[in-house]
Amino acid sequence: MRKLILTVAAAVLVAGAAPAAQASGGSVELLKTDFSWDGLFGRYDRAALKRGYQVFHEVCSNCHGLRLVAYRNLAYVGLNEDQIKEVAAEREVQDGPNDEGQMFMRAGRAADKFISPFANDNAARAANNGALPPDLSLINKARPNGPHYVYSLLQGYEETAPEGHALPEGMYYNKYFPGHNIGMVPPIADDSVTYADGTKATQQQIAHDVVTFLNWAAEPELDDRKSMGLKTLIFLLVLTGLMYALKRQIWKDVH
Amino acid sequence: MSGFKTDNKVIAWFDERLPIFSMLQHSAVEYPTPKNLNYWWNFGSLAGLVMVIMIMTGIFLVMNYTPHTTLAFDSVERIMRDVNYGWLLRYVHMNGASMFFILVYIHMFRGLYYGSYKSPREVLWWLGVIILLVMMATAFMGYVLVWGQMSFWGATVITNLFSAFPIVGEAIVTWLWGGFSVDNPTLNRFFSLHYLMPFVLFAVVFLHVWALHTSKSNNPLGIDVKSPQDTIPFHPYYTIKDLFGVGVFMVFFLYFVFFAPNFFGEPDNYIPANPMVTPPHIVPEWYFLPFYAILRAFTQDILFIPAKLQGVIAMFAAIIVLFFLPWLDGSKVRSATFRPLYKQFFWLFLADCVVLGYVGGKPAEGVLITIGQLATAYYFFHFLVLLPILARIEKPKPLPASISAPVLKGGGMAAGATAQPMEKA
Predict the structure, then answer these.
(1) CA dihedral angle for residue B238, residue B241, residue B245, residue B248, rounded to 10 degrees
(2) CA B407 to CA A7: how far, in whole Å?
(3) What topology is assigned to B25-266+278-410 in CATH?
(4) How far apart are CA B308 and CA B161, in angstroms?
(5) What is the pLDDT of residue B5?
(6) Which residues in chain B (228-267) have CB-CB distances under 8 A to chain A?
(7) In the predicted structure, residue A228 carries a pLDDT above the cut 70
(8) Has residue B33 got a pLDDT over 90?
(9) Which of B147, B235, B244 to mutate to probe the A interface, most A CBs <10 Å?
(10) Which of A40, A178, A247 is closest, CB to CB, to B241?
(11) What number is the average pLDDT over the span B182-192?
């Protein structure tokens, strides 16, 4: 058994060398916070999810897409069928050809994926001073320590760049952005949204809520995954214990 | 074939015509196995299990995957989001690749420690090295299929290595790509080969097991089986021991699948491939990092050989050298337990591989370049210089007379008493 533990330790050590080596990108330490979905028993905080969706809808979605998430998925966030239809219909998408062979625009439907705010990357750049607002579907998975990175970035703006840092025209200084020059206008401040559920909308609260929503967008399976994981591991631990007992029993006469 | 008996007439009829039951009886039930195997001997069968898991999950993933540059990334995300339990299939497959390498590397280091590559197991060892090579090719191509940033740029960097070969290099790269850059033809052929290779792997594993059952298992003492009392039948002793190992391993494996599925992954691979944007720091998957460090250790052109070509040759040589291991290490004693010097150098070599892995994951700059070069030099020094010398100068400890012997000596009266009846058996 001792050797087995050593094995596991060795495996973790060898395997861990890689991500550990890559995690240190030489950037600033991110803000610390706890998320409801951390740990073995972590789950999404449904109220935060709904507030986060409100922030995304009112603020982020003006520039950022969410192209891998479908409107129908918002049921998980707590929107009812009518609300989903209403949200989907806010934007138009090209469809067709119709019976006359013409392409046409129609309002979005619940079955559609989120319709991006710009027709393509070039249109997005043209409207944003050359900067491309990335699609946010996977942002929490696509950055090292994603949830903490996005959480920090949203609160990492500084009024003036530190001395000696040349800030290009039309850019903003952000402590956590690689290179510090970010094209995104500081998106949130205290009270930049008014929460439907009456929660006080501090900048920190808003950042935390929208990161919750974005994590759900990136890992919608997380609640299912963790609950299945717990059951599976408990089952396996019992089974393994029984197998160990059986092994001892079968081997007891071997010397 | 040995004593397979049955009262079932149908089974007996069938077995006379195709002796499947006799064969199972012979090689999975009665199969005489040294009785002193420790838990390091679990890793071979565990690797076999993971191979089966990889093939099964892979077959179902293919049903929902689309090998086209414009659709591949989104089809993977569709598996994650809309296919029933698709996230489970994909996370098992993705982490399974890492598990496969963890198990196989432990399996190999076990072989190194206990001298399992020595006569009469050279062919068994060769087949193992071939398995490693096939696994590496399969894993590399599988990683490309996701078509994220690291998929694309990893494929670009690795396939470009072949351009280091003089004269034919560029032509080889164009041939590999099926074009003039990594693009749709590359993705398509990688998909095809990624589906083919596991079955090649399966065949080589079959040969590996065949060779094992011909020369039989080595054991922690590294001495030959001398009499039937040194062995026990595979079933039930090793079937239960392996099953217990499976339980422990599955807890480890599934912990990652359910609670840290992206631990071994690279965040950049959740950004769709973009030929116009190079990631700041291109790294292969963790299991390639030691070899990546060897590749990058060569920074000086020597005469007409460019540094890049040296690196490529060294990287391949790092694996090819394993084929010669049974002759580089001439010591007749197998197990490091009885080789006081080799034992220490074994651990040093293991540490060297970990250092190489660490260096491979970091940007090549500053002192890390030198460390990488020293570690690379030591890697080859270990095989090409140290092992042949050790075989000559080392004075091994006395070997026990038989596998049963140390128990008789060390266990005192009680052990002697239980061993008595076994001698009659």
Answers:
(1) 170
(2) 25
(3) Cytochrome Bc1 Complex; Chain C (1.20.810)
(4) 8
(5) 87
(6) 232, 236-237, 240-241, 243-244, 247-248, 250-252, 254-255, 257-259, 261-264, 266-267
(7) yes
(8) yes
(9) B244
(10) A247
(11) 97
CA A213 remoteness from chain centre: 7
Percentage of residues in chain A with pLDDT exceeding 90? 86
Q: Flag whether pLDDT at A108 surpasses 90.
A: yes
Residue A69 near residue A82 (C-beta atoms within 8 A): no
Q: How confident is the model at residue A5 (pLDDT cuts 50, 70, 90)?
A: low
Average pLDDT for B105-134 = 98
Interhelix angle A2-23/B86-113, nearest 10 degrees: 120
Residue B316 neighbours by CB under 8 Å, 6+ apart = none
CB pairs < 8 Å spanning A and B: 135
Domain ranges of chain B: 25-266+278-410
pLDDT of residue A9: 53
SS3 assignment, position A106: strand
Instruction: Give residue B74's identity as a one-letter amino acid code.
Output: D
ipTM value of the model?
0.89
Q: Report the C-alpha gap between A139 and A148 in whole angstroms.
A: 11
Residue B2's pLDDT is what? 52
Measured in angstroms, the CA of A199 and the nearest CA of chain B are apart by 30
pLDDT in tens, B125-170: 999 999 999 999 999 999 999 999 999 999 999 999 999 999 999 9
pLDDT average, residue stretch B365-388: 97
Token pair of A150 as six digits: 């996005």
Which residues make beta-bridge pairs with A172? A182
Examine the residue annotation and report whether B213 is marked as an active-site residue of this protein: yes
Q: Is B45 a catalytic residue?
A: no
Q: Which residues touch A12 (CB under 8 Å, ≥6 apart)?
A: none
Q: Is B108 on the interface with A (CB under 8 A)?
A: no
Distance of alpha carbon A28 from alpha carbon A31, whole angstroms: 9
pLDDT of residue B412: 41
